[in-house]
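Aim 2, interim progress: modelling of the S-adenosylmethionine-bound target.
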Amino acid sequence: MRSSSSASLTRLRYDVVGDIAIIKDISHEIRLHVAQSIMKNRRNLSVVLAKSGPVKGLFRLCTFEFVAGENRTSTLHRENDCLFLIDLAAAHFSPRLVHERRLVAESVSPMEHVLNMFSGVGTFSIEISRKKPVKVYSVDINPEATRLCLINVLLNRVRGRVTAVLADAAQATGILFLCGMNRVLLPLPVKSREYLGTAVSALRMEGIIQYYDFIQVDRGESPTERMFSMVRPLADMYGLALGAARIVKSVAPRRYLVSLELRRSNP
Ligand SMILES: C[S@@+](CC[C@H](N)C(=O)[O-])C[C@H]1O[C@@H](n2cnc3c(N)ncnc32)[C@H](O)[C@@H]1O
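Predicted structure of the complex, ligand included:
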């Protein structure tokens, strides 16, 4: 999330993906003016889009309206020393997970086998494989996300380290990954609970699940403590220990995306 330095735009916040600025909640009357001001202030931006709806559907896509500059939704985005081809209209991507992706990549150990059950265009998978000598299986059900992931694997020279798989994560896990993984990523918060059992089935005797969920808190309540109390019964059921939790981002008033490590240890 960036803030413009111009006086009239000091309070305007917008996301930047490659050379695309994404504005939201700005009325039709002023948004062309706002877009032109953004492009005037940031000469490296070539497109301004307006987010016109929530993330939704199986592929977790947003709708965007073209506002100014070049009329396109694809761009090259640099993040944590990686380069990604993104198409905002075709496959989910959020630039706000930049720190989370770095932290996860740093936490992986060399030689691990990692399953990314909801890979999108391959961001977590590629960042992990660029940092550590590992094998990552990058599954997504969206053909366009998988196509972009394949291109991103080539762009980042991690062919052989990251395998892109076009499939439903549960089906692919049942056929290809049972008991084979040191680590499983579940970066689809709306489905984490549903897919936790599948993630457990992919783990070796010892391993880690990187679990994500949206957490709504009361005033003064800690989102990570709330995450612990919500997930504890589920973790107990699957014989998992609760590890470190952190807030990834705020998504609405008192609503957060929270990340949690769940550990399976050999008794
Ligand atoms: C929130 S996005 C992932 C974003 C990605 N991890 C990142 O950080 O860029 C969730 C992804 O899960 C995919 N997805 C949804 N249901 C799925 C399923 N049953 N199996 C595999 N992928 C699925 C969607 O197509 C979408 O690309």
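The longest strand covers residues 203-216. The domain at 2-72 is CATH 3.30.300.110 (GMP Synthetase; Chain A, domain 3).
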